[in-house]
Structure formats: structure tokens, C-alpha cells
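quick one: PMV bound model?
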Amino acid sequence: MTEQDFILKGFDTSVENGKVTWESPSNIALVKYWGKKKNQIPENPSISFTLSECKTITEVTFSKKEGNDFSFEVFFEGEANEAFKPKIQTFFERIEPYVPFLRQYHFKIETKNTFPHSSGIASSASGMSALALCLMSIEEQLSVTQGLVAEAARSGTEKSNHYFNQKASFLARLGSGSACRSIEGPLVVWGSHEEIEHSSDLYGVKFNENIHVNFENYKDTILLVDKGEKQVSSTLGHNLMHGHPFSERRFEQAHNNLSELATILKNGDLDQFINIVESEALTLHAMMMTSSPYFILMKPNTLEIINSVWNYRAKTGSKLCFTLDAGANVHLLYPDAEAEKVLDFIKTELVAYCQNGHYICDTVGYGAKHL
Ligand code: PMV
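yep, here:
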């Protein structure tokens, strides 16, 4: 698929109004995306677990309007929210060539998260993917009425579902890169990789191999170390990979790590899984610490947790490991079979390092849902 395939060729302007609702989850990268080219094209491929509990629910009510401007209002958890508007304005500008009906309608966007707002958990992946899916449902309504279906979706429901998901992911990417990995699950690859069939820089694709039973219902407990706003946005961080002294080697390493991880996800080797996942997390933060200007997003308690995880593993032989996003919070990944023991460990030892003792229990999930 190319960008051209995602351009909606025509739509039915007689549809006066309607309402669509989607819920879409967050995701946690195992091989990290850090560094991008123009138009939200990643410098390297990444792969993530889709989550199931941390999600955004978005309802979009649309009604026909006069005039040629973008017109939308945003409500977050029931209250009008001005702060989200610039991001959505930019999103609309970027995606307009592909969804040309945006200026014909007024959109009321009502959104809420299942996780606490100021938890330091980025809601851009779940939020942008939920909005992209709502726009796709509107596109579908405007196309179906007129019997217009985009070129690529012509034959068969399965094929058009596939097109729907791919275009939703394509649009979500233009809102926030990692959002393109939230449409499906349990594992999604984004970024072209020579060994992963159909992988693309333009959208995420489901990792379509037989995933080993060890990864079934894999757990992700998010330890909330710091609930504050990030001091450095990921947009800024991505940009600092341009001219970074280690960037070329890092992008190459991500390709290799994804090759290895693809094998591990099939053979279930949890020791190798831990090696790659923890190394990826620390490499992400190493890139931040060695960019110019340099910065550190980890906090003292992030390091306390990492050390406790290593001690726990050495003592018990557990397969618990950690990963990090662009922030201080720690994601603990572990097999379902260890859930009870690890939760015990979290409650007795790690909760002390969490802000106000807060953590969120999540499990790998299967992607967004139309409500
Ligand atoms: O999608 P963005 O631009 O917020 O970037 C996210 C980058 C990381 O979360 C740090 C890594 C990833 O692959 O999700």
C-alpha cells in the first residue's frame, strides 16, 4: 500500500449527521521507535504489545455545516478542553488529503481515559488511534451510502476490514507515531523490516506468526514513579536523533533486535526476551542521555525499581523484566503464570517507589473496539 491508496476518492455529501464511538488501547514497545523522518516516518522499525485496560473511549458526533474551516469542539471527561485543540488541529491538517470530508462537518469530540489523567501515562497512542478509528467509521458511512468504497477495499468484507484497519493505523500515525500500533493486537510491528512480511513505515501490521504460549495473557504492571508532565516532549526527543552521534548504529541495532525478537516470540525463550526488552529500554534512555542537548527522564525511584527487579530475578529465577517509555514510570512485564507471585513482590517491595503507592495492572490485549 502507498499513501495514494489511502486517499478517499469521493463521498456522499447528503449525510447530515451521525455519531460513532470507539475505544482504543495504549501499547508498550518492546523494540522502541525513537527518531523519525518527515511526515512521521520512523527511522527504525518497532514492535509493541497492545494493552487491554489502559484505553481511551472517544465519541464523535458530526453534523453538516457551512463554511470552509475546520470546526470541532473537544470534551475531556465531560468538560470542554481547549488544551487538546492544537494537537487535533494539526492532526486534521495532516490527514485532510486522505479524509477530504473534514471541512464539511462540525465535530463534537468527547473523550475519556480508563487510566487516571495525570498518571504520566501517555494517552497519545490510545487517544489518537481512537480518534482515527472514529473518522474511519465516518468515512465508511459517507462511502457506503453512495456505494463508494475506496479503491483498495473493493472486494469482500474481510478485505475491507483489512483496509479499514490499515487506513485507521495510517491516520493514527499522522497524529502520534506510536498510535499506529494500537489498532490491533496482541503484537504490532510498525516500520519496514526485511524479514517481516507486509511491514511498512506507513502503518502498523499485526505480527502474524504463531506466538508462543509463554506470551499468552502476558502481564504489564505500570509502576507510576512520576505522574508529572514530561520535561521533554517525545517530539523534541525524536528530533534530537538527527545528527546524534550514535543514531546510525542505534537504527541498525533496532533492526537486529526485531529480527531476534521475532524468533523469540515464536520459540518462547523468556531469558532472551528479557535481554532484548531491557536492553531496548536502557538504549532508549541512553539515546536521551547522549543527545545534544542531553536529558534524563528516569528518576531515582526508576533505578531503585530496576535494581529490585534484577535482585528479585537473581533470587527467584523469575522471568519478570522491565521496560520504559519516554518517562520515569516503569512497565513490569511478566508471564501470566507468575502473576500472583509478582504482584506480591510489587506490593511488598516496589509500591514504596511509586508516587502515592499507585500502579496499574494491565494485560496484553487484542486492539480497538467499535462501540
Ligand atoms: O509516538 P510518540 O511520538 O509519542 O513516540 C513514542 C516513543 C516511545 O514511546 C518512547 C517508544 C515507542 O516505540 O513507543
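The first strand starts at residue 17 and ends at 31.
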